[in-house]
Design brief:
This is Dehydrogenase. Pfam families: AhtL-like_1st, Molybdopterin, Molydop_binding. It comes from Raoultibacter timonensis. Keywords: Metal-binding. The chain has about 850 residues and is an alpha/beta fold. The protein has 3 domains: about 240 residues, Rossmann fold (3-Layer(aba) Sandwich), CATH 3.40.50; about 250 residues, Dimethylsulfoxide Reductase, domain 2 (3-Layer(aba) Sandwich); about 150 residues, Beta Barrel (Barwin-like endoglucanases), CATH 2.40.40.20. The chain contains 29 helices and 39 strands. α6 packs across α15. About 60% of the residues are buried.
Length: about 850
């Protein structure tokens, strides 16, 4: 393949993207020999282009300079990616669940525990085509659920996700699992109502924010932000470099989080430990301090905000008789009142910006809209948009918020790539279900909610509805097709999903995936797909933070096993459907759009905004094209500066154009919503959520679980990487040799509980339990325990009340959504208890679960389930 032919390394973009745009990647070089990947290494931009060609950008401040490098700052998660390609967990050939008989008994109840037999691609596509046809005839197309929204490898022509929707769209339709804005729930459901911005926090106004901080900032608050972890799955180490530079410039870095995360440990000048999902109390006490001490900007509020009086009234206790004092907050959030006051006073006196990657658990917990709104409320009280005072996103899309890379706005993908073939269905479809409501929609339809809920919809969309599934006159769900089979370990209340996938109404489950894991075990038919190393494609890197670049991705190796790309796997089924004629006629060609892969790649190139005089052949020969920095980049106003200087001329996208401390939209549409009232509040509980330690339920489950984005994984991905698993803090080896997912416990709690490092413990609540290996550490605040999210499910007992060996704590996350009129996920900051377990006793009780084909270096391996034809 590539290397042998051209003698050059092969260019790829490594990262993950939810929208089939091919973006969110870091460019890398791959060395390949004899159809084997030897190594993955940083990519150099300067092979064909000089800094002058690129009009290299440079930030100068306080006598120091920050410049982009000319090789990518790739992360370990990219470096190790060949281990994913050659994982022992790759699905080798198409599989059928042994006790699923489409002509006879389908045994939905044994999904999750059955074995699999090898079948051919022809058999697999025949069976699936027949099932689609049958479901269409018996129930109609909306009885097929498409789960196609996970992060996927950044592929464009061979899109990781959504290919099946492209095919089904051409022969009748489908029901879409609609992904809610999971990364930024609080910003979407809350902050948008105070400053109108979309889709995340201050996303729309990131230009030159870093430059502004470098020139004018005194401090940056890292409010639930770990740049030494979360940019790694996407761009790499640019954010890390910037934090070191901030230190050089004397810019203070203050961290507010329950844990000493990987950034905090290296860069923090101060750590303010806070209990999970109690930030709203801390924020209200800061507002109280500023109001009572007169240290906020009333003049700014007079011209830039509406409804501040309502907020002030609430903060001072007018509404509920409870002034939101630092003493009041201390009991809830665990931050001493003197720290709150000192911090509030420091903030009021200095130019302070807030950094997020996305926000951490308070942004994905119950009532997450409140702390998100309160953050904007605080920013407004200190004149957001003034020099050195903005909010910014320290990761992907806008990594550096410098318009040094074209095209503008700098935060968007190179637009064109969307024009190449890809399966993702944009816009709205008639029949859809919020992802958070899938288990309920399967087992207990109809379900209802407000809004289309997709990231990017305008604020008012949250007020449309209610929508219902199933649509009037249509049947419930009977078939599921998933190309992102990790619902259980990534969404809310995974145990309920395990029950739903075994529900008698579901007659057929098809999964297409490269690896045998998580929801794959519930599939009746499994189609093996492949990684981007095994196909040619086009890609972009507009994330890693130095240069925007578009590149041609040569095929590096032959497909592993019998795998096909996701696009090709669906094409096989399209071809098998053709024999039914009618709506299925010529489906294969229609699905592929009448172009070869190479022609689609060229479409992507032509529409990518590259200069007119750049020929496709030249691009292919060089392999890449980096976009030069805009000439006028320094003149572009920083962050919200224009709104700050001229609120009338540069209004926000709220109904009044101002910061709405009293949301007129919420007041008009949901006047009785006590969980998301017009003025941001501290919300204790609701009929569906009792997740506070001081409530009755807190006695039974006294700890708040922090379930961060994994340092050593990207969600459900990378859990099988040998190089990572050998790192001591990545997994804890149990006495039985199994590598358990770590659980951090504070020494004070560990003492009380009789836990020590290396113990295997169970985290549990009424929804079930998951195991993990204890690490006793002061890096976690007492009262909270920490276990990363996304570990691979390894069920001991399935379903509600179940037990998981893998440590996939989403299985026991709350099932209800953010609040009654919002369908966000609640996946962190919820109550649990913890106790030590004896793994040998468990092994005796559950010999099947403890006897699975397991390799400590990889975890469960594909053969663990293949019983015939292996
Ligand atoms: N507890 C807890 N839960 C959380 C969060 C949290 O902070 N805590 N965060 C939430 C957030 S922000 C997110 S974004 C979600 C992430 O949730 P998801 O996006 O659902 O998870 P991923 O593991 O990123 O990827 C989805 C699936 O795509 C697969 N995949 C990757 N490449 C390909 C490909 O080329 N083809 C096919 N067919 N499949 C591919 C992966 O193997 C995986 O199974 O999790 C959410 N859940
Ligand atoms: N390595 C890696 N990188 C990733 C991902 C991944 O899975 N792995 N996922 C990607 C995706 S899809 C997303 S959305 C982003 C997520 O980016 P973020 O939302 O920023 O990530 P989190 O890990 O959820 O939270 C960041 C930090 O918030 C702190 N925190 C947790 N709970 C609380 C709380 O209640 N209050 C406060 N104040 N702080 C808290 C913790 O210190 C945590 O390290 O990361 C992306 N990058
Ligand atoms: Mo996310």
């Amino acid at each position: 393949m590539g290397n042998n032919v051209t003698g050059k390394p092969i260019i790829k973009g490594l990262g993950f993207d939810s929208f089939g745009l091919g973006s969110n990647a870091c460019t890398v070089d791959i060395d390949e020999e004899n159809d084997k990947i030897l190594r993955i290494r940083p990519f150099h931009f300067d092979e064909h282009y000089t800094p002058e060609d690129l009009n290299a950008w440079k930030i100068e401040a306080r006598g120091q300079t920050f410049e982009p490098g000319f090789k990518t700052l790739m992360s370990p998660l990219s470096l190790c990616y060949k281990k994913r390609v050659y994982s022992k967990n790759r699905i080798p050939y198409p599989l059928k669940r042994v006790d699923w008989d489409p002509e006879g008994n389908r045994h939905p109840e044994t999904r999750g525990s059955s074995g699999y037999e090898r079948i051919s691609w022809d058999e697999a596509s025949e069976i699936v085509a027949k099932e689609i046809k049958r479901i269409h005839d018996e129930y109609g197309p909306y009885s097929i659920l498409c789960e196609v929204d996970g992060h996927g490898e950044t592929k464009v022509v061979h899109a990781a996700h959504g290919c099946v929707t492209k095919m089904l769209e051409l022969c009748g339709g489908f029901t879409l699992q609609s992904r809610q804005p999971d990364s930024w729930e609080g910003w979407y459901w809350g902050a948008k109502h105070i400053w109108g911005m979309d889709p995340l926090g201050q996303q729309s106004f990131q230009n030159n924010v870093i430059k502004d901080i470098a020139e004018n900032g005194d401090a940056v608050l890292f409010w639930g932000c770990d740049v030494e972890t979360t940019p790694l799955g996407w761009g790499g180490y640019m954010a890390s470099r910037l934090c070191f530079w901030f230190t050089d410039l004397g810019i203070k870095q203050i961290h507010i989080s329950p844990d000493v995360n990987y950034t905090n440990a290296v860069h923090a000048d101060k750590w303010i430990p806070v209990l999970p999902n109690t930030d709203a109390a801390l924020q209200l006490a800061i507002a109280y301090t500023w109001i009572t001490e007169g240290t906020y900007d009333q003049e700014y509020l007079d011209t830039h905000a509406v409804g501040f009086d309502h907020f002030r009234y609430y903060v001072l206790g007018g509404e509920d008789g409870v002034p939101k004092t630092p003493k009041w907050a201390e009991k809830i959030c665990g931050v001493p009142s003197y720290t709150i006051k000192a911090f509030a006073r420091y903030w009021a006196k200095h130019a302070v910006s807030i950094a997020h990657c996305n926000g951490g658990s308070y942004i994905r917990s119950c009532f997450a809209h409140e702390p998100a709104r309160l953050e904007v409320a605080l920013l407004g009280m200190q004149g957001v948009g003034k020099p050195g005072a903005n909010q910014f996103k320290f990761m992907e899309w806008t990594l550096f918020g410098i318009p040094t890379v074209t095209p503008l706005p700098p935060s968007t993908a190179i637009p064109s790539i969307g024009a190449a073939y890809r399966g993702w269905v944009t816009g709205t479809v008639p029949s859809f279900i919020p992802k958070t409501m899938i288990p309920e929609a399967i087992t207990n339809p109809p379900v209802q909610w407000y809004g289309h809920i997709g990231a990017g919809f305008p604020r008012e969309d949250q007020f449309t509805g209610p929508f219902t599934f199933p649509l009037e006159g249509n049947d419930r769900l009977h078939m599921v097709w998933s190309d992102s089979p990790c619902w259980e370990t990534c969404w809310n209340g995974g145990n309920a999903m395990q029950d739903a996938l075994r529900h008698e109404s579901i007659e057929c489950i098809v999964v297409q995936h490269p690896w045998m894991e998580n929801d794959c075990y519930f599939a009746d038919i499994i189609l093996p797909t492949n990684t981007k190393f095994e196909t040619a494609d086009i890609g972009t890197d507009n994330d890693s933070g130095q240069w925007n670049v578009i590149f041609y991705e040569e095929q590096a190796i032959k497909p592993v096993g019998e795998s096909k790309s996701d696009k090709e796997a669906v094409a096989e089924v399209a071809r098998a459907l053709e024999k039914f004629g009618g709506a299925y006629e010529d489906l294969y060609n229609r699905y592929l759009g009448g172009k070869t892969d190479e022609e689609w790649i060229e479409v992507g190139f032509k529409t990518s905004g590259v200069p007119e005089d750049l020929e496709y052949d030249e691009f292919k020969e060089k392999g890449y094209y980096p976009f030069p920095t805009r000439e006028d980049w320094k003149e572009i106003p920083a962050g919200l500066r224009e709104f700050y200087e001229d609120p009338e001329g540069h209004p926000l996208r709220t109904p009044t154009g101002k910061l709405e401390y009293y949301s007129t939209g919420l007041a008009a549409t949901f006047p009785d919503d006590e969980e998301r009232p017009p003025v941001p509040h501290w919300i204790d509980q609701s009929p569906l959520h009792q997740e506070r330690q001081y409530l009755e339920r807190g006695r039974q489950y006294p700890f708040l679980l922090v379930s961060n984005h994994p340092h050593f994984r990207v969600h459900a991905q990378h859990d099988d990487v040998t190089w990572l698993r050998e790192i001591e803090t990545c997994k804890v080896t149990g006495p039985d040799g199994y590598k358990y997912e770590p659980i951090w416990v504070n020494p004070i709690d560990a003492g009380k509980l009789g836990l020590k490092s290396g113990d295997i413990a169970k985290i549990y609540n009424e929804r079930g339990g998951v195991l993990g290996g204890v690490i006793v550490s002061e890096r976690i605040i007492p009262g909270a325990i920490y276990q990363d999210h996304g570990a691979r499910v390894d069920s001991i007992v399935m379903g509600e009340g179940g037990l998981d060996r893998g440590g996939a704590n989403n299985l026991i996350a709350p099932i209800p959504t953010t609040s009654k009129n919002t369908v966000g996920e609640v996946t962190s900051g919820f109550l649990v208890n913890i106790e030590k377990v004896d793994v040998f006793a468990l092994a005796e009780e559950y010999p099947e679960a403890f006897g699975r084909d397991y390799d400590p270096d990889c975890g469960l391996v594909a053969t663990a389930r293949i019983v015939e034809g292996a």
